[in-house]
Amino acid sequence: MSRTANKGHATREAILDTGIALAREVGLGALTIGELAERVGMSKSGLFAHFGAKEELQLAVLRAAQARFDENVSRQAFLAPRGLARLRELYKRWLGWAASNRQPGGCLMLAAASEFDDRPGPVRDYLARQQEGWLAGLSRTVGFAVEAGELPENTDTEQFAFELFGLILSTHHHVRLLQDERYFALAQAGLERLINAAPLRKD
Amino acid sequence: MSRTANKGHATREAILDTGIALAREVGLGALTIGELAERVGMSKSGLFAHFGAKEELQLAVLRAAQARFDENVSRQAFLAPRGLARLRELYKRWLGWAASNRQPGGCLMLAAASEFDDRPGPVRDYLARQQEGWLAGLSRTVGFAVEAGELPENTDTEQFAFELFGLILSTHHHVRLLQDERYFALAQAGLERLINAAPLRKD
DNA sequence: CAATAAAACGAACGGTCGTGCTATAAATTG
DNA sequence: CAATTTATAGCACGACCGTTCGTTTTATTG
Asked: Model pTM greater than 0.85?
């Protein structure tokens, strides 16, 4: 028996697919097994058996969402050459992912982080670890632009990444809450200002 | 009978006080009447009678939190003279309010906005209207610094406010999720960069 | 095809949810 | 103090929660 070709794996994938969508709508904490089972078209207990606990379902949904993010944002952006080109591509795809109003719910990871940042446990731990990794990757991407001579030698890459993250968050917040796509232009202007007046190390 | 000296008003205030704290911990959507009643020390139905509906309780909690925010941030900052002094004071108090790890839960309005930005209804409407007002006030505060000659004449005040908001959000996100107060320094550096390299209007 | 393992189901559990209703206790008023 | 309004409590409701368990259906294997 191959590891991926069994029935269980297939339905599990379908559950996670719908689970991501549902969690986006109601929040990861408010995701309920009954509602999810109904959307998938199976019984509550049948679905439950795949995870054994609500928390495991939440973690599985987060991991699945993370995988989709990596595919659509990180991996695609890494096809662009190191430097500003890659940074711009990453920012563009990240913005589209996080703040797109196309489908309801915005970015699941951002919403979950806001929801769980005060609830100790595996979910919070997962989100924190993932955030650390993402921030480190961002700094590295900025660093490549420095190495390429496209940003000042003494650019503070961590500060740059921190502010870049703020631009994404502000766009996410305003686009989603105020339903005004005009804020995408401000996000773009913010990136250009970061590039043209990059934060420098103090030393 | 005076309007404020009756018993009902007093307990209602106590309920909202505890309600803010509880909503910070579990989220506004997950705030339950039973748990809140227990914390306040009264019966579920007794508490419920004050609001008549869960949604009214949520709105009342939000309004109460808003009032506290206005007192501690806006009103205090407006004691400083117009210009960069007021802007810095506002930023400092805002940061302290939103990202302080002193008491659990962070900023209720930010958390609620993230939670309800996809759930149409009175709560969402309230948050959106409040956000519009706050953003307009921010722009005005930046504008005073322009009028005072402390920022370039053609400063884009909306862009400035948008990016300022991003710095707060990024600090909130990182301080709360990663439990690292080091990010307050990045927030400060971000403000200085905004002031020293302010975004300019394109025209 | 038969034997076996995996997956899904249905019913039930103790709890908690928001929300009525009715009665009692407390505060306010004349 | 008595009358009356206001605030609180108690109880019950239907609905849904996460979880368990035994059974039945469906896949996989030899």
From this structure: yes
